[in-house]
Amino acid sequence: MSFALAACAEMLWPDRPLAWRASRLTEMGFGVGLWNWPDWDLDALLATGANFTIMNGYVQGRLTDDEGADILIASAAETIEVGKRLNVDRPNLRDHPGCPFNSTADVLELVSTVNRPQLRINLDLYHTQIGEGDLIRWCAACLPWIGEVQVADNPGRCEPGTGEINYPAIASALADMGYSGPVALEAHASADAETALNAFRSTFTL
Question: pTM of the prediction?
């Protein structure tokens, strides 16, 4: 079994233009994750023909006060139009200081309570490991609402196999649970980007 694999273009090959990174990820068979669209050349990205799997859902605003929420909604509306242009599968809310949804538990409570197909969890296992641990149980708890699983090892936020997280066991557990959605590398390369991507692919190909 192979999950649908993607990688965050903005964390790899930092000396290369973003469109080059998107093209190389596409050549290697990966979907492409993105962060902050005001920094991008949208025409160059479109020309790559990449499958853009996820991007930040807004670039300004906050959820902790009315004024910030208004800014966030306006930013999200603008971002959605960019996402439509790039045919991004999933816009994603970022975690910021002051954001009330900074734990897996909080996000699960929110998404499961709303319980609509338009709202899904970006289950970032690197952050879950730092904040809560117990990754396989969190995968199981979040399973009905997962939109994407993101991975990086800890410490260091590099590719699987560089830290303490047993990603082969997590990959097997996700498969056993019936998860067949996207898994994305949101990590720095410990050395060479392509070596890191191949290690990630190997870990999540069962």
Answer: 0.91
